[in-house]
Write a structure and sequence with these properties.
28% strand, four-stranded mixed beta sheet, globular, alpha+beta, binds uridine-diphosphate-2(N-acetylglucosaminyl) butyric acid
Length: 316
């Protein structure tokens, strides 16, 4: 069901002067460049706006979803029935905290800061530990929810605390309460899934900017060689089964380069599927099913999705 005219009016009241994009094409908000229109998309600039809007959504039963860079999302061709929230303004700050933790520099980061910008800032400030994120396109909040990782490191190593915003106020969760796992953060997906990340505290290591910059360049170079950098994709489609690379399994099943419509298994890294132009979510899902079946037949491994499919209607 689309947002009714009366709800549209109430919504416009809450966000005031801020523009609301009606029928916002999700293809423009996701790195796959796939997805039909969301009923509405609003950009919120501070915690008070988030709280107000979440209270409205709760009161009116409006479905909502926060999008970061949309770098791990496959959005439905039918779009999204509900409200997409994008964070901006005060969610884009990076501040070094006065007090260090065990002599390690501590940084407060707004949810909407992009990982490349954060990594660059940390490098300039001589704060090491984020080099592994070089080339990951998401926002810091998305990276925490996903427990994004590469080259043997992951976000859980550096996250100290996360502040969550809800309709009734905010709550801070320490790293130990977040229940990080491989490419997931259970607490943020489950019991706190109806709250929005406002800021993240990260704890880094003092280091020399030149050394950090050098390591970042090396990792970016490795990524350029082994992954389809620059093409429209959502990163790795599947999680790695224990002790084995999903990319290698798909490759060994002979599937590299396979195509359904404009959805294609990358020739460079088989766990990346790329949109060669006008791929639909249906093409991508068909390719995902085909790969799952073939890998199970050839290797016995059952692949689990790492990317998130965003359905048009709430799943029951
Ligand atoms: N391999 C193949 N064929 C392929 C892809 C990989 O034979 O098409 C082989 C590689 O040659 C290598 C092994 O499989 O021997 C592992 O490959 P790679 O080093 O690329 O690592 P991965 O396990 O496939 C993981 C993460 C990536 C991350 C890289 C680099 C997952 C699902 N993937 O990939 O993360 O960038 O390591 O550290 O954990 C992501 O999460 O979206 C992602 C891209």
């Amino acid at each position: 069901m689309s947002l009714s005219a009366s709800l549209k009016a109430v919504l416009a009241e809450v966000v005031g002067e801020r523009p609301i994009l009606w029928e916002a094409p999700l293809a423009s908000w996701t790195t796959y460049r796939i997805g039909g229109p969301a009923d509405a998309l609003v950009t919120l600039h501070d915690g008070a706006e988030v709280r107000q809007l979440l209270a409205l959504c709760r009161r009116e039963g409006i479905r909502w979803k926060v999008l970061g860079r949309g770098s791990n999302i496959l959005a439905s061709d039918d779009g999204f029935r509900g409200l997409i929230i994008v964070l901006e303004g005060k969610f884009k700050y990076i501040v070094r905290q006065q007090e260090a933790v065990e002599n390690r520099p501590v940084v407060q980061v707004g949810a909407a800061v992009s990982l490349p910008r954060l990594a660059d800032w940390c490098c300039t400030e001589g704060c090491g530990g984020l080099e592994f994120t070089a080339g990951i396109p998401g926002t810091v909040a998305g990276a925490v929810i996903m427990n994004a990782g590469a080259w043997g490191a992951e976000m859980s190593r550096i996250v100290g605390e996360v502040e969550l915003l809800g309709p009734d106020g905010s709550v801070a969760l320490k790293a130990a309460q977040l229940r990080f796992g491989y490419r997931c953060c259970l607490s943020l997906r489950e019991e706190f899934g109806d709250l929005v990340i406002g800021k993240v505290q990260i704890i880094l290591e003092k280091d020399q900017p030149e050394g950090i910059r050098k390591r970042m360049r090396e990792l970016q170079q490795k990524r350029r060689i082994s992954q389809p950098v620059g093409l429209a994709s959502g990163g790795c489609v599947f999680k790695n089964p224990a002790g084995v690379s999903a990319g290698r399994l798909i490759d060994e099943a002979g599937l590299k380069g396979m195509r359904i419509g404009d959805a294609q298994i990358s020739e460079t890294h088989a766990n990346f599927f790329v949109n060669r132009g006008r791929a639909s979510a249906a093409d991508m899902l068909a390719l995902i099913r085909l790969v799952r079946d073939r890998v199970q037949e050839t290797s016995g491994n059952i692949l689990e999705m790492e990317i998130e499919f965003l359905p048009a209607e709430p799943s029951r």
